[in-house]
Amino acid sequence: MSGQHRIVLPLPLALLLENCRSTGLTDDEIVRCLQARDYAAIEARTLADPAMSIAERAGLAEELGLDWAEVMRVGYEFGFLHLNGLKRLLAFRYRLHAGADYEAGEDRLDGVRLTAEQAEELSALIHRQWLVQPQADLVPYQGRMSSGDINCAREHDFVSLSVVRKVG
């Protein structure tokens, strides 16, 4: 994302993209489906949120003149992101769920286990309203994450994070 600014996406469109990505389709395949208004390839796969209306949200993106190819090329970040939206992002992108993979408070999440690369990625997406920081009371990680999708061989492959709402 060399020197170009990321596109700020409204919450419904950012979650649409993450939901589509949860299917395993490539970004190019997703762009083709959204541009052609042919969602069959997306809907034929398992979505993180199968109840989400792909057509409705894609229609909103079209009304706003969103260029999905440009979003994929330069990247995006969330404009406004409330706590439940953050939880959905973690579920869609990293298959992490409150109560099972981390603890959720009123304005924070604790015990979010991500690789350093994933933590940087998450921070870039949500930096406008949330801080991603190492958790103060770090507990060593052992074994697989409860989602079963991410496996690491050593404790230090993952870091335990707190995600805290920015004040002011």
Description:
The chain is of the alpha+beta class. The longest helix is centred in the middle third of the chain and has 12 residues, at 83-94. The strands form 2 sheets. Strands 3-4-6-5 form a 4-stranded antiparallel β-sheet, with helices on one face. A two-stranded parallel ribbon has the order 1-2. β3 (103-104) and β4 (108-114) form a beta hairpin. The chain contains 7 helices and 6 strands. α1 (11-21) runs parallel beside α6 (83-94). The model is unreliable at 138-155 (pLDDT under 50). It has helices spanning 11-21, 27-36, 40-43, 54-63, 68-74, 83-94, 116-126; strands spanning 7-9, 76-78, 103-104, 108-114, 130-134, 159-165.
Strand element count = 6
By oligomeric state, this entry counts as single chain
Spans of 5+ residues with little confidence (pLDDT < 50)? 138-155
Mean of residue pLDDT values = 86
Count up the helices.
7
What is this entry, summarized?
The protein is of the alpha+beta class. It has 7 helices and 6 strands; from the N terminus they run E-H-H-H-H-H-E-H-E-E-H-E-E.
